[in-house]
Design brief:
The protein is about 70% helix and about 5% strand. The chain is mainly alpha-helical and about 170 residues long. The protein has two domains: about 5-70, no CATH class; about 75-150, Arc Repressor Mutant, subunit A (Orthogonal Bundle). Helix 1 runs parallel beside helix 4.
């Protein structure tokens, strides 16, 4: 595994900050294109690992998610819950509120607050498990499923663009 010096890490952070500043001033411009404009003389080791391209794509994914879901906080444990729900739905499985909290690594009380927020946004629906009435089942709504699907379509398009620019 490639090891980076503190100086190289500081340079990477500086470049990421530059990209962030450039994107903030230019709107939805591609971070990969911006990255190449910011510094076309990166060290050979960084070119081979593709680290800078990965960083810029990660930033782009976060920005696409923020613009796609609007004011909803879709990061950290909440995002983990949405991913778990999407995957469970695709496999015909259901998840309980406690399953989601455990999977997101948060206490049940915090998980329930997050699920409530997603429910208010119309992205998830809670129901009582018919087999065990003590259990609450959480599913993506049709709107939640559609929003997740269109988000991943956008990410797929961004990935293809990034790959084209990287070539």
């Amino acid at each position: 595994m490639q090891q980076f010096s503190n100086q190289e890490i500081a340079e990477l952070k500086s470049r990421v900050d530059q990209i962030h500043d450039l994107l903030a001033g230019r709107g939805e411009e591609s971070p990969v294109a911006t990255l190449r404009a910011v510094d076309s003389s990166r060290p050979e080791a960084l070119q081979k690992t593709g680290l800078l391209d990965q960083l810029s794509f990660s930033i782009q994914m976060r920005r696409i998610r923020r613009s796609h879901f609007g004011s909803a906080e879709m990061s950290g444990p909440v995002w983990d819950m949405m991913l778990d729900l999407m995957l469970a739905g695709a496999h015909g499985r259901v998840l309980s509120a406690s399953d989601l909290a455990t999977g997101a690594g948060v206490p049940l009380s915090s998980g329930l607050r997050m699920i409530s927020a997603l429910e208010r946004l119309g992205l998830v629906h809670r129901s009582i498990d018919e087999r065990d009435r003590r259990r609450t089942i959480v599913r993506l709504t049709d709107i939640g499923t559609e929003r997740m699907a269109t988000y991943f379509e956008k990410i797929g398009t961004a990935w293809q663009t990034a790959q084209t620019l990287a070539a």
